[in-house]
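Reproducibility note. Readers wishing to regenerate the assembly model reported in the main text can use the exact inputs given here. Chain order matters: entities are listed in the order in which they were concatenated for prediction.
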Amino acid sequence: MKRCLILAVVLLVTAVTATAGHPVLEAFGLPDTTPLGGLSILRGRNELPPIDGVDVLARRDAAILARLAGDAPDILRKAGWFVVPLNDIPRSVGHKAIKTWTPVTVVNPDIQSMVDRIDWTTIIRTMSKVMRINSRYSTTDGCRAAADTLVAYFTRLGLAAQKDPFQVSGSTAYNVVATKTGTVWPDSVFVICAHYDATSESPLTYTPGADDNASGTAAVMLAAQFLSEQPSTCTVKFVCFAGEEQGLVGSNIWTAAQFAAGAEFAGALNFDMIGWWTDGVHRELEVEVDPASLWLGQATINAAALYVPEMTCLLHIDAGAWWGDHASFWNYGYNAVNHEESWDWGDPDFNPHYHSTDDELLNLDVDFTVQNVKVAVAAIAMLAQPVSTTATPLSLAGPRLFASPNPASGQVALRVDGMVDGASVRIQVVDLRGRIIAESSTAAFGGVATASWRPDPAQHPAGIYMLRLPDHPGVNPVRVSVVR
Ligand SMILES: [Zn+2]
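Running the prediction on these inputs yields the following structure tokens for the assembly.
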């Protein structure tokens, strides 16, 4: 009962129009009026080569913000540079919602059971499904074979899985997306994601990419394995991106398409490099959010504290943390969190085998990897809320909620059965963003309470609405479809 109540609190969101400027311009100290056309973030290991069509605007740590022209992006990529274009996205996506996270203090035995079954053997077995391919560099057949492997894996778990093709450096690569539809709040969609492509100094022949990023990919795969075992309240999308090493290409294209199609995401959890730890250096998982995603970072830290107390999390609030696929979600106004082993390239625990043929399984820290994968599974499970298939319903004789007609175009009759005579009950109508749009209080006679709701065509567009009893969190909400 407590769990449902907590979920209801989390889903109460207040929408606000995003008025903040472009986060990356802000992070580089540039005015928000700076034109975005041709702007890219560059990062390389050496000095910027003197090539035509590169106009440097600003630097931040090891990163450069430059306006690129002509074939400069391709030349830089071929020279091993990481090039992230800042898309011409709407500056005010109007998508941001300030949400609050209410801490969960009670262990859910279903989630505990998932976490308890994660060990190093399970992780190696999962990672090796993609690591047995010699190269996962985005333009290679190996990367395309890895996509097929992932689709087969998710499909075997009973999930709807697909490959979304896109072009990178003249080749076709695929983002792999598997979906598990929620049973109570199917339109509350959480994403857990990681990139599965990799690179090295011999990108076309050998890219083990154990830490970067078979480790994060395994977290997504195992989350899918455990969450597919039982129904969950909310929908979860398990997404494996390619084209990350070419500059977040796959995730940028995917989130742009989702945004264009009007998709709503409650939040996305990205995992990128979660298996390396340098002995003697502070041992923690970095949790990176923009200000609007703070609640989501708090949720994963809550999950870690509750289910993996041996792992410390360190929260960073920085809208300019552009260096992972989470930033593609931020660009389109979605809430997202990045999880990684070190905050930046300058960190003393930054993996020295990064982007090399030495990024092998044997270089990973066993306990650190296991604990971080546990955090990933606990966090997405806590957000998606598994529905126990074995527990006895809290009260078989308790209230039940009905709505008719459904679909409705005019007045909807609401009825609550199983009430104690004379007891009053509150009924709420909530839209898919969690906003309460109507509420009424009514008393029961003969065990039945009735009320009605008439959607206002001016304020309540056609679509799905949820009815719920806020004082009876154990009662499943009812979906009402409003048609015009
Ligand atoms: Zn990576």
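We highlight two features of this model. Residues 195, 212-213, 244, 272-273 surround zinc ion (CB under 6 Å). The chain has three domains: 20-85, 92-384, 395-482.
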